[in-house]
Structure to design on (137 residues):
């Protein structure tokens, strides 16, 4: 009985859907470009990018201890000097559009509050610390 029902559902799905292939083109679209002069000694680029709900784009290259904030037109609207020289492991916005930054050594989590232009330091002890800062739920 179960086999007959499953077979009937699969047959209905196959008959009700038709696959139409369309020719498509892969197009390249650059929102904007970031000048490489901002990243000295960047032989091997390693980037972290995050975007918030207001379409602010946070960008970090491993070779530079800064996070640059851009708007969607490519204008740099802010920059954050990091208190460490290692690469950034994680870069994300929380639910309140504060920027969370974790250093590669996993010692601290930095939260940049845009409203006050303030960089807070939170200790990192376990993975739950990162996820609890990302979301209250």
């Amino acid at each position: 009985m179960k086999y007959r029902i499953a077979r009937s559902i699969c047959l209905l799905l196959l008959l009700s859907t038709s696959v139409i292939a369309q020719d498509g083109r892969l197009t390249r679209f650059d929102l904007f470009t970031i000048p490489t002069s901002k990243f000295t000694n960047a032989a091997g680029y390693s980037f972290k990018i995050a975007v918030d709900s207001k379409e602010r784009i946070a960008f970090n290259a491993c070779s530079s201890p800064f996070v640059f904030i851009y708007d969607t037109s490519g204008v740099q609207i802010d920059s954050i000097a990091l208190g460490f020289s290692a690469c950034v492991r994680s870069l994300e916005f929380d639910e309140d559009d504060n920027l969370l930054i974790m250093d590669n050594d996993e010692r601290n989590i930095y939260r940049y509050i845009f409203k006050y232009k303030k960089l807070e330091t939170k200790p990192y002890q376990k993975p739950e610390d990162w996820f609890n800062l990302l979301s209250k739920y």
Notes: The mean pLDDT is 80. Strands lie at 47-51, 57-61, 66-70, 76-81, 88-93, 99-103, 108-113, 118-123. The longest helix spans residues 2-16. Helices lie at 2-16, 127-134.
